[in-house]
Design a protein that fits this description.
single chain, 140 residues, alpha+beta, Immunoglobulin-like, 2 domains, four-stranded antiparallel sheet
Amino acid sequence: MGFSYVVAVAVLLSSSLIFFGIIYSDYVHTESQINDAQQKAYLQNYDYTNSRVSISNYSYAPSGSNFTVAMNVTNTGSVTLNMNHTNILVNGSLVNFTYSGQYLFPLGNDTVVFTTGAGIHKVEMVFNTGYEKFEMVVIP
């Protein structure tokens, strides 16, 4: 009976060590993932907070039955904006647009060109940082 007791204690101790080893490994992995997610959230919040764009003016010219609109934008924030990941919505609909450079650096200027019909349009520019800029475009 003494030997079986020693074997039982040895089995319980070794299984406890294995169990706590697995739990500790998962805990460390989870903490690492949480820290990475918090760091990404902090960086994303920093980029959003420091993003600013001003639209100095816009012009339009007839292009067939539509109009080509050119908007002059200036990055007045401290974060570089990626124009490849920017979207423009006109009256809530996504439109294709062109721009001259891939990046809009701080204090940099660019001209964004898109096509739309006549009328009053609500134009929304959504940048890669989540920052949005609204502008009313009136084409008689």
